[in-house]
Structure formats: C-alpha cells, structure tokens
Automatic annotation (TrEMBL):
InterPro entries on file: GASA
Keyword Signal: yes
Official protein name in the record: Protein RSI-1
Pfam families for the chain: GASA
Similarity field: Belongs to the GASA family.
Biological source species: Cicer arietinum (Chickpea)
Listed PANTHER family: EXTENSIN, PROLINE-RICH PROTEIN, GIBBERELLIN-REGULATED PROTEIN 5
Keywords: Signal
Signal peptide annotation: 1-26
Amino acid sequence: MALRCYSSFIVISLLLLVTFSNVAQAYGSAKLRPSDCKPRCSYRCSATSHKKPCMFFCQKCCATCLCVPPGTYGNKQVCPCYNTWKTREGGPKCP
C-alpha cells in the first residue's frame, strides 16, 4: 500500500514539473537562443498582412532581447526588453 501511494506521488510530481516547465517556456521566462528566433517570429508574424517587415523587426528584437512574446499580438509585458524598445518617433519597434 505504501509503495503504491509513493509511486502515485512520484508520477503526480513529475506531471506537475513537466507542466510548469512548459508554462515557463511559453511565457518567455527562459532565454531563447538566436537559432530559436526564426520559428518564434514566424508564429508571431503569422496573423499579419505585413509579414516581411514583421519578420525583419521581430528577428532583430529577438536577437537583441532573446525573447519573443507568446501569441500573434500583444503580451509584450512578458518580454521587458522587447516591450520597451522604441523607434525614433517613440512607437514600438518590436511587433
């Protein structure tokens, strides 16, 4: 009985660990490698009609910040560097 309870505890603990590690990656807390930028930016720019400039600026921001916000729009608060980088005119540089 004790062995079954212990093994159930181990299985549940592992499932929670995997779940929380996936959530942390999805929300950008883990630093990306430069090679991870293109696939993340492809998804980030997938909903826009201006794919070429979106990809250019997203990859530039990702290379500098090593972070791309989740989703196709918004969520920039997850990546502070990505969120605060502005153009000369004061608009957001990163899509």
